[in-house]
Amino acid sequence: MDYDREKELKAFDDSKAGVKGLIDAGVDKVPKIFIRPPDELAKELNRCQAGLRVPIINLSGIEKGNRREEVVHQVRAASEKWGFFQVVNHGIPQSVLDEMINGIRMFHEQDPEVKKAIYTRDRIG
Questions:
Q1: Alpha carbon distance 33, 13 (integer Å)
Q2: If DSSP codes are grouped into helix, strand and coil, which group holds residue 96?
Q3: Which of 10, 64, 85, 86 could disulfide-link to 55, CB 3.0 to 4.6 Å?
Q4: d(CA 5, CA 57)
């Protein structure tokens, strides 16, 4: 029997429960929609380079001299090449970061019906 990825993906989306919903439902193995074909994965693994490091943007001293321009350049370059980066010396207290993580955890631990109301795979923006 042929695998119908689109059908499985639609069923996953229609559940509006996300990955946490799969776990809550007792799924004990990774669904096929999340497994990349071996040939596709092999191509990517062959392209991977050892020693790659996520760009780190240091905001220390951003208010001084031309440091702001330098940081803007670093953010632009990291965004274009990587699509993400880590920010350090941003001045956000650890307590605020901890509260953010707790808020995310609280969201994911909500009743599935609450989360279904806002589930979407649409791109925002």
A1: 11
A2: helix
A3: 85
A4: 39
Tens digits of per-residue pLDDT, 91-124? 999 999 999 999 999 988 888 888 888 888 787 6
Q: How far apart are CA 81 and CA 87, in angstroms?
A: 16
Q: Would you call 83 helix, strand, or coil by DSSP?
A: coil
Q: Is the pTM of this model over 0.70?
A: no
Query: Which residues, at least 6 apart from 36, have a Cβ–Cβ distance to it below 8 Å?
Result: 44
- Measure Cα distances from 73 to 55, 68, 69, 79 in Å: 12, 9, 6, 10
Q: Tens digit of pLDDT for each residue in 34-57? A: 887 788 777 777 766 666 789 999
